[in-house]
Design goal:
By secondary structure, this protein is of the alpha/beta class. It folds into 2 domains: about 1-90, Translation factors (Elongation Factor Tu (Ef-tu), domain 3, Beta Barrel); about 100-210, Rossmann fold (3-Layer(aba) Sandwich), CATH 3.40.50.80. Helix content is about 20%, strand content about 35%. It has 6 helices and 16 strands. The strands form 3 sheets. It has a 7-stranded antiparallel sheet. The protein starts with a strand and ends in a 6-residue tail after the last strand. The model has no long low-confidence stretch (mean pLDDT about 95). The structure holds flavin-adenine dinucleotide and FE2/S2 (inorganic) cluster. Flavin-adenine dinucleotide (FAD) binds near residues 62, 70, 71 and 212.
Amino acid sequence: MRELNATVLENIEIAPMVYSLTFGLDEEIAIRPGQFCMIGVHGYSLKRPIAVCKTEGERVTVCFRVKGGGTRALAGNYRLKEKIPVLLPLGNGFSVPEEARRIAVVGGGVGIFPLISAIRAYTGTHEVYAYMGFRSKADICLEYEMRRAELILATDDGSAGFHGNAVQAFMKDVDGLQPDIVLSCGPLPMLRALKNSMRGRDIPVFVSLEERMGCGIGACLVCVCDREDGSRARVCRDGPVFDINEINF
Ligand SMILES: Cc1cc2nc3c(=O)[nH]c(=O)nc-3n(C[C@H](O)[C@H](O)[C@H](O)COP(=O)(O)OP(=O)(O)OC[C@H]3O[C@@H](n4cnc5c(N)ncnc54)[C@H](O)[C@@H]3O)c2cc1C
Ligand code: FES
């Protein structure tokens, strides 16, 4: 993990209340798909955890939905060339066993952003099927990135693609598709639905959790969650990616 002073290169709205922020580093840093960064925000002592969506050499792009004061400030207050404090790279990220050929990614809400990093990493070497859920057609963003994979879009209101959520769209196809591994990220009810639906199937599922965080580096215990075996895990340090059967949602 490095503490960096990055330079803002772009900060644009890509869907209603969703921003794409690209910053430049002084050097290229190896970042695995699913890893995240902690980004400093003007006026707040705690940095905000945001998944890395895209890396291109020394350029790193994160995408975020405005949720509260921190993300609102991040969206509005950073201008081109401004310096921004960043801790990077954090967490374990996704890993796919060498023998896996067919990967399904299942994402909803802001969970699509870390999955785009997985799509970008694995489409050259694996068959990737992406089931991506949005509230409505107007919320769909980064479609050109998702289309690197075989893309199945879902919307809650049926205005584009499958009418329903990403898990429902995926479960309709799973038995025909027979993926070797599933990577997922999204709101907790979505991950719970995926866990219940996949029970009894012999397909490994790994989920990236977006737990409330303080430090992002394993020191404050704000992000702990319960494991099925009764022990506790720090999402920032032990995750954010876990076997879906390891965590008690
Ligand atoms: C590993 C990880 C990756 C994430 N990746 C993305 C992403 O790619 N895009 C995106 O839009 N959002 C992502 N999130 C969620 C994002 O961190 C929160 O939406 C954001 O921190 C909210 O901050 P706020 O000040 O706007 O909201 P507030 O609710 O005002 O935040 C108050 C405090 O709670 C923390 N907090 C609140 N909600 C969350 C949350 N869901 N997760 C973690 N901390 C939270 C904030 O960091 C802050 O310290 C990710 C979270 C984690 C843990
Ligand atoms: S956020 Fe501090 S230990 Fe995880």
